[in-house]
Amino acid sequence: MRFVEEVVVDEFLPTVRSLLAEELRERGLTQREVADALGISQSAVSKYAHGDVATNDRVAADGRVAETVERVAEGLASGDLSRVAALVELEVLIRRLEAGDLLAELHEAAMPALADAEYDFAVHDPDSGLRERERTLTSLRRGLRTLTATSGFAARIPHVGSNLVECVPDAVDIEDVAAVPGRVFDVKGTARVPSDPEFGVSEHVAGVLLSARAAGLGVRGAVNVRYDPDLVERVADAGVPTVEFTPREYGETDPGASDDPVRAALETAGDDADDETVVVYQTGGVGVEPVLYVLGPDAPAVARTVRDLV
């Protein structure tokens, strides 16, 4: 008797680890860094590098395996992908390959009696919430890399700080929006990100994003920058819809409520704001700093829009 998990451990895992180790080394990581990224010993990395570990040719030649390995290796090397996110991506691939696919075929080869049996090993949900949250964090990290590398962005950060946020596809509240804890601040002309993104740590920018979604926009990313009438003009000249709203005292309404000022302004704008990217802004009030918000499909897209405008 042989379980499909044994096929994963004996054939899939050594092959994928070998491919990942090779990809990471090609991206300039040291043997120690590769070991840390994969959660294995340096001696194991050395064995993979020298071909001392048996691998499966069918697994190595599978296009989906190759695509996942390349994507995971790039994310681990750049820091955009956490080890948890990498694990989730590989777990999802395993479950898909188990469901009457490559791993199921390898399992049948090891257990010929299974060939005529009806079975289903798709025990993990490929569209799990954990996967979506990790993918959102990965996307947000990419956006932050673009934003902090943008010349002139630091000068656009409001006094209250800036934040780049992205929500999961089915977001309903603040806990579904990832952001930078403590916000991004201008430190001597450089945009500083104090810590790794988390969910539920932004209320203000996340609230604007949720309000826009409540108004019917399909946006998932947002960032706030200092209001400047010249910037609004450049945004309009670039063909990006701009919508002004009247700020209210913070906490006076819940994000997305029917009387929320951002939602109301966008609903009034109607089709004029029905675009992949839109800018909403307020020119300030008593105790309220004027701020401009760029909303878009995801955090990297929003960051690129800011990069192109500043």
From TrEMBL:
SUPFAM superfamilies: AraD/HMP-PK domain-like, lambda repressor-like DNA-binding domains
One Pfam family of this chain: ThiN
Domain of life, per lineage: Archaea
InterPro entries named among the record's database cross-references: Aldolase_II/adducin_N_sf, Cro/C1-type_HTH, Lambda_DNA-bd_dom_sf, ThiN
Alphabetical list of CDD domains matching this protein: HTH_XRE (cd00093)
Domain HTH cro/C1-type: 20-48
Name recorded for this polypeptide: Thiamine-phosphate synthase family protein
